[in-house]
Amino acid sequence: MTQFTDLLRRTDRLLLTGHENPDGDCLGAQVALWHLLRALGRSPRIVNPDPIGKAHDFLLRHTPFEHARGESPLPEFDGVVLLDCAQLSRVGQLGERLRQSGKPIAVIDHHVGSERGDGVVHMVDATAAATGALVWRLFREFGVPLNQAAAEGVFLSLVSDTGWFRYSNADAEVFAITSELVAAGVDASLVFDSLYRRNHPDSVRLLADAMQRSRLLHGGRLAMVALDRAWMDRASAADFDTDIVLDPLRSIEGVEVVALLKERFDGAVKASLRARRDVDVQAIVAAFGGGGHKKAAGATMRMSLGAAESAIEQAVAAALAKAGLGR
Known about the structure:
Elements: H1 2-10, E1 14-18, H2 24-39, E2 45-48, E3 66-67, E4 79-83, H3 93-101, E5 105-109, E6 121-124, H4 131-142, H5 148-161, H6 172-183, H7 188-196, H8 203-213, E7 215-217, E8 222-227, H9 229-237, H10 246-250, E9 257-263, E10 269-275, H11 281-286, E11 291-292, E12 296-301, H12 305-322
Parallel strand pairs: 1-2, 1-4, 2-3, 4-5, 5-6, 8-9
Antiparallel strand pairs: 7-8, 9-10, 10-12, 11-12
């Protein structure tokens, strides 16, 4: 922790970034850290590999976001902070540009094994519910009170990675932090409405179509849906958050693992796995170079969609048997 905070103290122009297609935890943590660094007299910039999406653009009313898609020039910077990921390979083409800069890299993350990532210093706690919770701890470390914008960022992180407090990682720390955030002025209904009540008219049809493509396998213990490139193009046009597909499948009685497979524009497949009880999906995706948490993990698989379906099905079947949940 001392080395990490020392880097923040002595580095003025920090570039804050995260994984491709940044989610609520990544963006919320960036917001909070940006405001912390500004309060400390620093000059941070948030530069992500992809632009901020419609669901999260309410953050722009108080925090500036930039992106480096294509050949956009980067601002001058003295160091890098990776949030919600620990490998430059997860930052897309921007990651290689940051590597070539030779600037020191710090990591703030809550995923298993992130202390072995590309950071020269790191703040990692795999027991933390969200990356934003770690940034909240930094406010305590520096003795800086959260302003309303920073509080909203931490709140977004927490609700994103706890499923609005429905998941088992919604622990005592999460609720204690949330109480402080609401007292700091966070409007929970505004965040909820911004995230979930501005959907494109095609979103309902896309969700219904995804459900029709789903399959129940291994006695109903595995729910899998594979979305091809054409479907993903439709989703992109409607700014559809594909993670919405996971919850209806998780709600089915008897389902232990949900697997969502998405064919990317480059032919690779993004696999997202969720578990209900004793199956360790982080161990499953680790075999494909992925990572995450025991009950929520993902990987980028360099193979066809059909091959990825087969590989994930076999791996989940083995994990179900190992957990005593096979047929």
